[in-house]
Amino acid sequence: MEILFKCKKCSKKNNISNLNGTCGNCDNNRLENFKIIITRGKLRGMSGMQTLSTAKEILKSALNKEKILLIDPKSNFNKI
User: Fold this and answer.
1) How far apart are CA 17 and CA 2, in angstroms?
2) How far is CA 23 from CA 10, 42, 57, 60, in A?
3) Which of 32, 31, 38 has the alpha carbon at shortest distance from 13?
4) pTM to 2 decimal places
């Protein structure tokens, strides 16, 4: 599953790495001006709510210029 953040101001779909205080394309830096997009499948139940809540916290941190470390559980940990 991939999570994208669509800017409501310029309609650009940003990966979390594109966000560093603002949208990767314009000067939008307001949490309310982004829409969270899940690229595959549907979120259901409590796990879906937790996923959206976590995505919102990640977006909030990125807009506050905090460094974010995301670890892919499928990656080789020796390369981290």
Assistant:
1) 12
2) 9, 25, 16, 12
3) 38
4) 0.70
Q: What pLDDT does 46 receive? A: 84
**Cα 34 to the chain's mean position, in Å?**
10
Using DSSP, state whether 68 is helix, strand or coil.
Answer: coil
Angle (CA) 31-71-47 rounded to 5° is 60
Structure-token match 């990767």, residue found:
24
Answer for the pair 62, 68: CB distance below 8 angstroms, yes or no: yes
Check if the beta carbon of residue 4 is closer than 8 Å to that of residue 39.
yes
What pLDDT shows up at residue 70? 66
CA distances 61 to 22, 25, 29, 44, 57, Å, are: 11, 18, 11, 25, 6
R_g (Cα) of the chain, nearest Å: 13
